[in-house]
Design brief:
Elements: E1 17-21, E2 24-28, H1 30-41, H2 44-48, H3 52-62, H4 77-108
Antiparallel strand pairs: 1-2
Helix pairs in contact: 3-4
Length: 112
Amino acid sequence: MGGLPSGRREDFEPIFFERKVEGQSDLIVDEWCEGYCRGVGFAEEAWMAGSKEVLESLAPISAFTAQTCWVNHERTDAQVQILQQAITHDVCRIHEFWLERHEDRVSGSQTV
């Protein structure tokens, strides 16, 4: 699955590529993260005004993008794996943050 239609974490799984070299598998998350950050860029002002939590949650994602010059290429394999594992969790946190804001706006609106 590639989205969060119901807003539940268990419904989300980012689509990462995997590369196998000499019997060892490596996740390739750069393309997914790059696309996510490009999407953020379409409404960057709203995202940057979101909250400290949103900005912190974007950090592991943006670390795998051109925006940060792929800083992970300078990290150890263990550090990269920790950040890769944080992506799904952090994207779910971001989704929950925006879903909550959307629900607040919808419940506060009046039908005319």
